[in-house]
């Protein structure tokens, strides 16, 4: 109802689109705009993407698919699949076969470490080589238009918001992101929808076969992410999208996505220490890598706050004759009498990334000649608001009710993102008397101790589960296979994390309720046995799953495999 009302107002309003027209300054005085009638409707919109319980729908679909579909009414891509299509056994089997072949391009941990010790491969030149070998010239890719986004925290969320904003303006969108939660085709979206499995499979074999047939030696194939980047470009060209919202994989300067030279709108989100073995051990070094996506003459928008990082970004922008804009706070768009009451209803998704996304979308629309916009102009209207609140970005501060549990799903894996996650969870459970449970894992080699400290002081957890990213003891579904980390390596890592948690509890003189489980099914079985009232729906458990996007996927898969939680407690 809320979204329908907003759309009606957009279609029938005779008022100008802009609430406020200001210059480059973000501190203009906001004028009142008579859209107060939308407030009661907007307040009913679930700002944290609470999934609506629907009979017969599995947890995976509730997580991945928004409860209110926002479909671009101006375009019909033929990409959207019905539930019956998603459950088609032949389609699923063909898709999984393609993913198994794709997984052969993953590298194990030893190979990755060895490559890091050797001289850096020219990733961009390598990507272009394989792109053109696959039958797609770079010049053809560059006939598309791009918005390129890098950063440590919030780059995926910013991209998702930007894509939604553009789609609600009637733009046909492509969206490339990483990693995925459950299915590899989450990484490539058309008009906000996951690329259909049959289309993914068709495009995969076309690209893979061409590259395989044109090898110059046995190992002459692109690595996993490089292949997916190339595949994404093929899809976006075939789907003839108006714009591609392109999320950087790692860093920026040397990232596979950084081969396109015609980017006019660039975003850089919050920065922090991450992938230090690849990007550098200081914030200025990381800022230099992220700013590597700045192209000649582009408009660069950022909400980076650290002065040492901003100085690096300014310098790189100057070197490329680009213009840097520090975006205003998102709250500035909601200071008018009409919109101020809505601010308190927003999730962190919008609060932290809304302004940057608005500026990126509006700048692209302006540079494409679709309407006029001054960089850092602060304005709000029902159409923009609809684009913001309709954004669905699963696995980030997402709350889903399932079998007596309030599942808090957040893939936070950096200190900055975990700060957001723990603040969100603490607010969510502040008035709850229900048992509170943490499920945590952290893959990779970066430190997890700061994350544990944040989690430890968030609340007094009644149960803490450390578990590998494994749904069951049998192999994960193809889309969730991690060649780099074997099950044994992951279990060893979980034990190390559990030991660090025990040390933290001892230091704080608090009871250690942590335990290691081999799989997510083992963990959830133990949870239901400990708190059987949840399976009878007589009570609810507050469950936080965090530390890794891959952990979320394994947890969702495990819960979908457990059809009757109560039967597990009766054993």
Automatic annotation (TrEMBL):
<dbReference type="GO" id="GO:0005829">
    <property type="term" value="C:cytosol"/>
</dbReference>
<comment type="pathway">
    <text>Cofactor biosynthesis; tetrahydrofolylpolyglutamate biosynthesis.</text>
</comment>
<keyword id="KW-0460">Magnesium</keyword>
<dbReference type="InterPro" id="IPR023600">
    <property type="entry name" value="Folylpolyglutamate_synth_euk"/>
</dbReference>
<dbReference type="InterPro" id="IPR036615">
    <property type="entry name" value="Mur_ligase_C_dom_sf"/>
</dbReference>
<keyword id="KW-0436">Ligase</keyword>
<protein>
    <recommendedName>
        <fullName>Folylpolyglutamate synthase</fullName>
        <ecNumber>6.3.2.17</ecNumber>
    </recommendedName>
</protein>
<dbReference type="GO" id="GO:0046872">
    <property type="term" value="F:metal ion binding"/>
</dbReference>
<keyword id="KW-0547">Nucleotide-binding</keyword>
<feature type="compositionally biased region" description="Polar residues">
    <location>
        <begin position="68"/>
        <end position="86"/>
    </location>
</feature>
<keyword id="KW-0999">Mitochondrion inner membrane</keyword>
<feature type="binding site">
    <location>
        <position position="247"/>
    </location>
    <ligand>
        <name>Mg(2+)</name>
    </ligand>
</feature>
<feature type="binding site">
    <location>
        <position position="178"/>
    </location>
    <ligand>
        <name>Mg(2+)</name>
    </ligand>
</feature>
<comment type="similarity">
    <text>Belongs to the folylpolyglutamate synthase family.</text>
</comment>
<comment type="function">
    <text>Catalyzes conversion of folates to polyglutamate derivatives allowing concentration of folate compounds in the cell and the intracellular retention of these cofactors, which are important substrates for most of the folate-dependent enzymes that are involved in one-carbon transfer reactions involved in purine, pyrimidine and amino acid synthesis.</text>
</comment>
<dbReference type="GO" id="GO:0004326">
    <property type="term" value="F:tetrahydrofolylpolyglutamate synthase activity"/>
</dbReference>
<dbReference type="GO" id="GO:0005524">
    <property type="term" value="F:ATP binding"/>
</dbReference>
<keyword id="KW-0472">Membrane</keyword>
<keyword id="KW-0554">One-carbon metabolism</keyword>
<keyword id="KW-0479">Metal-binding</keyword>
<keyword id="KW-0067">ATP-binding</keyword>
<feature type="binding site">
    <location>
        <position position="275"/>
    </location>
    <ligand>
        <name>Mg(2+)</name>
    </ligand>
</feature>
<dbReference type="GO" id="GO:0005759">
    <property type="term" value="C:mitochondrial matrix"/>
</dbReference>
<dbReference type="InterPro" id="IPR018109">
    <property type="entry name" value="Folylpolyglutamate_synth_CS"/>
</dbReference>
<dbReference type="GO" id="GO:0005743">
    <property type="term" value="C:mitochondrial inner membrane"/>
</dbReference>
<dbReference type="InterPro" id="IPR036565">
    <property type="entry name" value="Mur-like_cat_sf"/>
</dbReference>
<feature type="region of interest" description="Disordered">
    <location>
        <begin position="68"/>
        <end position="87"/>
    </location>
</feature>
<feature type="binding site">
    <location>
        <position position="410"/>
    </location>
    <ligand>
        <name>ATP</name>
    </ligand>
</feature>
<keyword id="KW-0496">Mitochondrion</keyword>
<feature type="binding site">
    <location>
        <position position="396"/>
    </location>
    <ligand>
        <name>ATP</name>
    </ligand>
</feature>
<dbReference type="GO" id="GO:0006730">
    <property type="term" value="P:one-carbon metabolic process"/>
</dbReference>
<keyword id="KW-0963">Cytoplasm</keyword>
<dbReference type="InterPro" id="IPR001645">
    <property type="entry name" value="Folylpolyglutamate_synth"/>
</dbReference>
């Amino acid at each position: 109802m809320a979204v329908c009302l907003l759309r009606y107002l957009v279609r029938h309003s005779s008022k100008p689109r802009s609430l406020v027209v200001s210059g480059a300054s973000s501190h203009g005085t906001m004028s009142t705009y008579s859209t107060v009638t939308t407030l009661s409707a907007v307040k009913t919109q679930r700002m944290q993407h609470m999934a609506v319980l629907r009979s017969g729908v599995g947890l995976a679909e509730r997580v991945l698919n928004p409860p209110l579909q926002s479909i671009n009414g101006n375009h019909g891509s033929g990409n959207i699949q019905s539930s019956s299509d998603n459950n088609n056994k032949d389609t699923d089997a063909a898709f999984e076969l393609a993913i198994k072949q794709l997984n052969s391009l993953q590298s194990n941990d030893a190979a990755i470490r060895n490559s890091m010790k050797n001289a850096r491969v020219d990733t961009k030149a390598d990507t272009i080589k394989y792109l053109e070998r696959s039958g797609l010239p770079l010049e053809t890719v560059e006939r598309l238009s791009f918005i390129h986004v890098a950063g440590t925290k919030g780059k995926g969320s910013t991209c998702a918001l930007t894509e939604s904003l553009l789609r609600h303006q009637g733009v046909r969108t492509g969206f490339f992101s990483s990693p995925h939660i459950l299915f590899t085709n989450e990484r490539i979206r058309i008009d906000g929808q996951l690329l259909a499995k049959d289309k993914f499979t068709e495009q995969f074999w076309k690209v893979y076969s061409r590259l395989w047939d044109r090898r110059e030696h046995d190992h002459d194939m692109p690595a996993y992410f490089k292949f997916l980047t190339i595949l994404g470009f093929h899809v976006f060209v075939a789907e003839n999208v108006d714009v591609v919202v392109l999320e950087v994989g790692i860093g920026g300067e040397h990232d596979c996505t950084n081969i396109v030279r015609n980017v006019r709108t660039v975003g850089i989100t919050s920065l922090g220490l991450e992938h230090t073995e690849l990007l550098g051990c200081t914030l200025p070094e990381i800022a230099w890598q992220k700013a590597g996506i700045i192209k000649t003459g582009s408009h660069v928008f950022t909400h980076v706050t650290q002065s040492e990082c901003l100085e690096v970004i300014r310098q790189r922008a100057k070197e490329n004759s680009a213009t840097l804009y520090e975006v205003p706070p998102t709250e500035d768009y909601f200071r008018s009498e009409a919109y101020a009451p809505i601010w308190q209803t927003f999730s962190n998704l919008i609060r932290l990334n809304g302004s940057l996304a608005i500026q990126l979308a509006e700048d692209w629309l302006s540079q494409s000649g679709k309407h006029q916009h001054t960089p850092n102009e602060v304005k709000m209207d029902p159409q923009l608001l609809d684009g913001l609140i309709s954004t669905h970005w699963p696995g980030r501060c997402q709350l889903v009710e399932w079998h007596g549990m309030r599942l808090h799903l957040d893939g936070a894996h950096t200190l900055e993102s975990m700060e957001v996650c723990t603040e969100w969870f603490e607010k969510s459970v502040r008035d709850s008397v229900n048992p509170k449970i943490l499920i945590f894992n952290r893959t990779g080699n970066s430190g997890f101790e700061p994350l544990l400290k944040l989690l430890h002081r968030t609340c007094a957890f009644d149960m803490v589960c450390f578990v590998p990213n494994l749904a069951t003891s049998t192999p994960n579904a193809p889309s969730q296979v991690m060649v780099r980390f074997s099950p044994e390596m992951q279990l060893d890592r979980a034990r190390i994390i559990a030991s660090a948690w025990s040390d933290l509890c001892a230091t704080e003189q608090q009871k250690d309720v942590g335990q290691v489980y081999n799989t997510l099914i083992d963990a959830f079985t133990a949870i239901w046995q400990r708190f059987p009232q949840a399976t009878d729906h007589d009570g609810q458990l507050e469950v936080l799953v965090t530390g890794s996007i891959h952990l979320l996927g394994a947890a969702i898969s495990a819960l979908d495999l457990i059809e009757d939680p109560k039967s597990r407690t009766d054993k």
